[in-house]
Amino acid sequence: MAVYTDVSETDLQLFIADYDIGQLLSYKGIAEGVENSNFQLHTSQGNFILTLYEKRVNPNDLPFFLGLMDHLAGNGLSCPLPIRRRDGETLGVLAGRPAAVISFLEGMWPRKPSVTHCRETGRALAAMHVAGEGFEIVRPNALSVDSWRPLWERSAARADEVEKGLAIEITQALDALEAGWPKGLPEGVIHADMFPDNVFFIGDELSGIIDFYFACNDFLVYDLAICINAWCFEPDGSYNLTKGMALIDGYTDVRSLSAEEVAALPILAQGAALRFLLTRLYDWLTTPEGALVVKKDPREYLRKLRFHRAVDNASEYGLRRAGHIEETAP
Ligand SMILES: Nc1ncnc2c1ncn2[C@@H]1O[C@H](COP(=O)(O)OP(=O)(O)OP(=O)(O)O)[C@@H](O)[C@H]1O
Ligand SMILES: N[C@@H](CCO)C(=O)O
Questions:
Q1: The domain 115-326 is classified under which CATH number: 3.40.30.10, 3.40.50.150, 3.90.1200.10, 3.40.640.10?
Q2: Does the Cβ of 195 fall within 6 Å of ligand 2?
Q3: On the chain, which terminus has fewer CB atoms closer than 10 Å, C or N?
Q4: Which part of the chain is the Aminoglycoside phosphotransferase domain (predicted)?
Q5: According to the model, what pLDDT value does residue 307 have?
Q6: Model ipTM?
Q7: Residues in the ligand 1 pocket, defined by CB under 6 Å
Q8: What does the pLDDT read at residue 34?
């Protein structure tokens, strides 16, 4: 569930009176999501999403997130558009929390992603990277390699409760990642959480990307590594090479990869797996039993990490067209 903060009808009516979005007809809490409280608003002008930002979101980051959606939508990407109040602001306060109204995207996220969904997602990811060019606010990735050790130290003592031997395995993977993390790859704005539940489709057609609340500046190809993790493994833990090919083909149809980016893909995929393993592990160990939030299994990402640690080169992910690898000067 994700309604941590209740909103009264009177407060909501007062809040939306500052916007040109018509009269409130009805509203309801949205159960999905874990970070923020989301409501669907139905007004005389249509549907909107109201988000109340909860305590894991740093209010100082909100101008980046809202400004980014505005920038991306302005550059033709299909994503929610923050609605401006009559005073020009996109951020307000409701029920004591920072709050924003964003446009409603039609579509559903794919419960069983297909090869076509993977290809369309690859294209949309690259389109987002291109559309993000020129966005002026910078937000370093708070969940990149430098943050993993402190995050790990908060779970290390109890890690073996989840799986015997986990502490040693994570420590070894972390040591290797810190030593070998690449430098100097092309950077830009990345989504950093483009999982199936953040990509909407109408049939096979991608209708939009949501949830930019982990977006930040980092290596562009790291975002592809995150998507390989999130989209290309089957529920039994096996890697689906056909989906990998489709995702990477889709991406490189829109933005080509340099030889350095291709070479870095295996270590970036390991890093992405460790990042989600660590955040899931922390939540797994700290979320109280009986909380309404569904805890995500860290072991899924342990299996993925093991897979990546055995990968030699990007062709094992499905990178196949020679044209994917930009020629570098001799
Ligand atoms: N612009 C939008 N249009 C339509 N539905 C939306 C929109 N934004 C959010 N939703 C709905 O709200 C749900 C939760 O949104 P979101 O993923 O942003 O929440 P969150 O709390 O940040 O969750 P998490 O970070 O766990 O994914 C989505 O699954 C979707 O059903
Ligand atoms: N996508 C993350 C959840 C946070 O958005 C995960 O699956 O662990």
A1: 3.90.1200.10
A2: yes
A3: C
A4: 27-254
A5: 98
A6: 0.93
A7: 2, 30, 32-36, 38, 49, 80, 102, 104-105, 197-198, 210-211, 213
A8: 76
